[in-house]
Amino acid sequence: MFTLTIAWRNLWRNKRRTILTCSAIAFATVLIQLGMSFQVGSYGPMIEGATRFGSGHLQIQHQDYKDEPKLERTIPNSKYLLTNLTIIPNVTAVAPRSESFALLNNEEKSYGAMIIGVDALSEFEVSYLPRNISEGEYLPTSDSAYTGTILAKNLGLKLGDEIVLLSHDNLGGIAASVPILTGIFTSGNDQLDRSLVQIPIETFNDIYQLEDDVHRIVIMVENPLDLDSTKKMIGRILPPSTRVYDWRELMPEISQNIRLDKISNGIIYGTLTIIVVLSIANTFVMSIFERTREFGTLRALGMKNFALFRMFLTESIILWLLGVSIGITVTILGNVPLAHYGIALSSLGVDQFAGQFYLPDRLHPHIDINVLLVAPLALGVGICTTSMFAAARMYRISLTKALRFKE
Amino acid sequence: MATEILTLTNVSRIYGKEATKVLALTDVSLSITKGEFVSIVGPSGCGKSTLLNLMGALDQPTRGAVHFDGNSLGEMSRGELTDLRLQKFGFVFQAFNLLPVLTAAENVQFVLQLLGFSRRERQSKTTEVLDALGLADVADRPATELSGGQQQRVAIARALVGEPVLLFADEPSANLDSTATRELCELLRQINTDRGITIVTATHDPLVMGYTNRSISLEDGRVVEDKSNP
Amino acid sequence: MKHPLLSRVSLIYSLSVRNLWRQRRRNTILLVSVICAITGVVVLNSLIRGMQLQMVDQVVYNLNGHITLHAPDYRSDPAITRAFIEDSNEFERKLESLNLAGWATRIKIPAVVMSERETRGVQIVGIDPVQEHISIVADLPIEGTFLVDSADNRIVLGRALLTQLRTKIGHRIVLVMQDINSKSIEVGFQIAGVYDSDSEGMEKHVVFVGKDALQQFLGSESITELSLRFNTRLIPPNGLETISHAFPNLEVVDWKNIDPILAFMYESVNAMVYVWLAIVFTALVFGLMNSFITAVLERTQEIGLCKSMGMKSSLVLYQVVTESLIIMFLGLIGGLLLSWGVLQLLGDGIDLSAFAAGVEMLNLAPKIRPAIVWQDINIVIVATVFLALVASLYPAIRAVRLDPLVALRD
Ligand SMILES: Nc1ncnc2c1ncn2[C@@H]1O[C@H](COP(=O)(O)OP(=O)(O)OP(=O)(O)O)[C@@H](O)[C@H]1O
Ligand SMILES: [Mg+2]
What we know:
The complex is a heterotrimer.
Chain A: H1 2-13, H2 15-55, E1 58-62, H3 78-87, E2 91-105, E3 110-118, H4 120-126, E4 133-136, E5 144-148, H5 149-155, E6 164-168, E7 174-177, E8 180-185, H6 190-195, E9 196-200, H7 201-208, E10 216-221, H8 227-236, E11 242-246, H9 247-250, H10 252-290, H11 292-301, H12 305-341, E12 343-344, H13 351-354, E13 362-363, H14 369-396, H15 399-404
Parallel strand pairs in A: 3-9, 5-8
Antiparallel strand pairs in A: 1-10, 1-11, 2-3, 2-6, 2-10, 4-8, 5-9, 6-7, 12-13
Helix pairs in contact in A: 1-12, 2-10, 2-12, 2-14, 10-14, 12-14
Chain B: E1 4-15, E2 22-33, E3 37-41, H1 48-55, E4 63-68, E5 71-72, H2 78-88, E6 89-92, H3 104-114, H4 119-132, H5 148-161, E7 166-170, H6 178-194, E8 198-202, H7 206-211, E9 214-219, E10 222-228
Parallel strand pairs in B: 3-8, 3-9, 6-7, 7-8
Antiparallel strand pairs in B: 1-2, 1-4, 4-5, 9-10
Chain C: H1 4-22, H2 24-64, E1 67-70, E2 84-85, H3 88-95, E3 100-114, E4 119-127, E5 142-144, E6 155-158, H4 159-165, E7 172-178, E8 184-195, H5 200-205, E9 206-210, H6 211-218, E10 222-223, E11 225-230, H7 239-246, E12 251-254, H8 255-258, H9 260-298, H10 300-308, H11 314-346, E13 350-351, H12 356-361, E14 367-368, H13 374-400, H14 404-409
Parallel strand pairs in C: 4-9, 6-8
Antiparallel strand pairs in C: 1-11, 1-12, 2-10, 3-4, 3-7, 3-11, 5-8, 6-9, 7-8, 13-14
Helix pairs in contact in C: 1-11, 2-9, 2-11, 9-11, 9-13, 11-13
């Protein structure tokens, strides 16, 4: 009881110092929390975008297809597998894809592109690409084709034009077809907009003589955090020589970027924490040594070491609590509007590049318990440690000296 | 019936080492008997505070032994010494040393809390002692706002409230004027006679000396005189 | 004979040093926090700068050069029809006054490569091997042989592409491209060698052939780009304008325009350096202020005494400011030395190869080598002095305004 009263009143003995120290703690807390909330807020959409435009949460392939994508490395009997996959809990959507590289010709030019056979209805559920349609319709008929804006522009194609596709089929013959451009998409990711043609999977498999085989089965799940168990379950029903991958394996650049970002920011936050903790340590040293004689008196009156120690600790914990709660309040208050409206990436001048990193137009910071606790805890550990060091130094002074201490 | 409660045998206290060595006390032997009101006198730097600190278990002698109630202080642990100070000793300092963030009453209560008294007991004991010392009016004022004499009386209240066997006061009157000093001495004598608390005080004020019933004179760290005052 | 001002300054200085020493515990911690802050800023900024310059190096080195020149409409549709005449003498004459490491002429056009069973889109780069000492080409590890000269009619491709195409050195592959009449032509090349690169994208998409040989196939004598590299790490001031003047009919593009993402990252790094400096120094200012407020408060009596005796209390205040300057100066020296040590330890860089794919996506180099930019250090120095003044002047000025009676009583 007295410990708390004494600690509290001692803090307000030097208001300006306490306010400055609290501000330092609050400053570091807010900075780290805001930084982290934007980081965390960008990872979600980045993963979402990457999985929605690229790999899906999980993907089944022939076991050698990832290293060396060859036309004949397929998943056999896909219809049966697709039906079975939908029964697995947590799986929300599945879509088959077949693909091959082909040469696109119009009268005067030719470009290389990926031709992907998709099932229009399933694709709608796993991918954002069908929704990013900017012109026309998404694969209405079996002879339709869907391409990106840049590719259409490079080839000089408009809706209704024929596209001439040329490549090798499964049996080593020439695979040719002439679908009609019925839809154009703009995803924002240049790579996709430049080099992708989708056609219905039945048509694709006809041209390439693949029958019922496909190259990939893309799977979306309800809860991405539960990916591993779903992956295991899928693994049990796979046909021989196929494998299931998660998005981290398929797009290592995304998960690596997230890790790299976490590490580099961790270093920045760490440095900041150290500087603030040192500032605070300095304050502790001042305020504790100023009171040497008071502590001497307490010891003379019969206060136990432990009780004295508790008094130091209480003071620093109050200081910490004050600073951190101001910080957390500011973070939360600041985050309410930010999380609601988000920050337009265009205002930061990065919107042109957002697509490249699968980021949406607006970034919404995200606060979770980790974001809120990491900085306060790191600061707390630092503050308690330094206050203990300062307190420990106090014990080394002999009682008689402490009692004679002049400020 | 005189019982010796505090005994010093061949006590020396040397500060520092080698070149900067100071012999603050040399071969002091004496004992304090229960119920005495003792003053330790002598010129500045003769070792009064040093002696008092050794008696009050605030410091350890370089040589020799201090016994309280037959137990050697030198054989006690730090924790035991702390307990001893808390339960058996009371201290009054020259600079009062009240906790500035607490009120007069709280300064007193604080010791009771260290002693483990319940809230109610703390309150009643504090009121009692403050009333007895005529501090009822200032009980709730912050310690820093009190006059020197008031502060010193709060310090005495703080020392008394734990009902110590021995009360040590190092130059309690040094920061007081003569009226306040006289009041203080009356108070100490009253405590000594009414409550039977043994008091040892260091002073170079003849006024204070006059109130005590035994004076030990020091010079250069040695006892040069030890006489009873009628 | 000492000048009175000088003796006054030396008096303040010696008093300050003594005061600092008296509170050495507190001031040591203060010093440590200043050293930490400065080291944090300098080391991190050197890493960021290193990253930034390496990004530039990579772009410049990667077949772009600091500056490339194209026919005006080439960039919107890269084709041999949008090319310009190679006139070595003219180039030589116009470029000789510049501090160039060298220049190279190239043909860069899209093509489709077909082996027996696979088809891939690639960029075909026609080069003159002797000119390519300015680019990555000279350093690529090669299995087999590289092109011997500009007339070499064989092809060199990346290991990843070779694997994808399932072919071998010595085998032939067919490239489909458009000739000078925009007709698709198929040209067979024998594979001379295979290169390895840090970038998988490059291995998959860039193939090299002899420039003269390519010109023959395409039926053209032109080139699509002239690429320049300076001897300096960045383009010297006015470099871009000089070249634009010399080649009024060509589009002159610097490395920033080649890759806008990179240019953006480059620019944001400039901002990042200052933001980081501001954050760290703000964090530091709290501790400094606290210390100097206390330093002033401790001397309240001193100041009050001076004032009540009608003397100038400024002496005490100069002391506090001097103390602040001394601490910051020591912190600066310590911080810079420690930074130097840390950077020395980091030595040949921080290895990011564990993040290879991510690093490639971000245009970073696989190994970050710190780079010290003197301008950044100068700013740190200026900021430190500024901070020293701010942190001590505020409490000092407050103290000057102090009422002498209040000061004495405290
Ligand atoms: N912690 C210490 N370290 C070194 N020397 C000390 C220490 N404490 C006291 N002394 C020295 O020991 C001698 C006795 O000091 P002490 O404080 O006991 O004298 P005192 O009689 O109480 O003097 P005063 O009347 O001035 O209070 C003095 O010479 C003093 O300088
Ligand atoms: Mg003394």
